[in-house]
Amino acid sequence: MKIATWNINSVRLRIETVCRFLAEAKPDVLCLQEIKCRNGEFPEKAFKQAGYKHIHVVGQKGWHGVAIVSRVKLEPVEAPKICPKSEARIAAAKIDGIEIHNLYVPAGADLPDLSNPKFAHKLKVLDRMKALYKKRKGQTPTVLVGDLNVAPGEFDVWSHRQLLNVVSHTPGETDRLNAVRDLGGFVDLARLHKPDPEKLFTWWSYRSPDWTKNNRGRRLDHIWATSDIAAVSQAEAFHIHVPVRSWERPSDHVPVVAALKL
């Protein structure tokens, strides 16, 4: 089973790009974040024509929103309530006995201080995730994916020193996200297959005049698996699709793909 995750930054705006990726990478399951549409506005027809007939959408007008599309049958399941504002930030489904949790953690805006309500909201979401996934540990084989909006390690950013006080890499965020992973019994598949000190990025700012030249990226998009699932993850199939960032009208994120030999 090949599972992909991608913050698409408006699925309707970039549906042609998504279909191109599906045709080239051929994942069995694609988890999208920041779809920016309500359930009835999701472009189901295009996905079904591409062979992804099984769809679970948790949408929201104008903002946020997540979706799971699959070649094989999926069963929507109740997702942990990670967001105190009840925003559309998580979708969960069971496929072949495995639960797939697709998350979109708040970005937190620019100021890494509790006086910034968006940053405070982000920390609350991460704290909820710690408690909820700790309770779930050992219950169900799970793959957790998504734009978690935190680059947790020294080699997940272009400059650890310069970004320590920049939202997405502050200790308050990285400590919380690493605790979610450990308390939930998850393995970070990126670092399982591509250990430190290799630098891995999945996001490059739109503000950069030439992202390829300065390569000031961050690894904000993740695929984790409980240890039983991580054991059947295939190293050669893990891939960050960096060239997608240069496609026409790109998202600022690129897809990440992992494969499980079930």
UniProtKB/TrEMBL annotation:
Pfam families: Exo_endo_phos. GO terms for biological process: DNA repair. InterPro entries: AP_endonuc_1, AP_endonuclease_F1_BS, Endo/exonu/phosph_ase_sf, Endo/exonuclease/phosphatase, ExoIII-like. One of its GO terms (molecular function) is endonuclease activity. Its cofactor is Mg(2+); Mn(2+). The record marks 253 as: Interaction with DNA substrate. Probably binds two magnesium or manganese ions per subunit. The keyword Magnesium applies. The record marks 149 as: Transition state stabilizer. Its EC number is 3.1.11.2. Residues 4-253 form the Endonuclease/exonuclease/phosphatase domain. The record marks 221 as: Important for catalytic activity. Mg(2+) binds at residues 7, 34, 147, 149, 252-253. Keywords: Hydrolase, Magnesium, Manganese, Metal-binding. PANTHER family: EXODEOXYRIBONUCLEASE III (PTHR43250:SF2). This is Exodeoxyribonuclease III. It comes from Terricaulis silvestris. The gene is xthA_3.
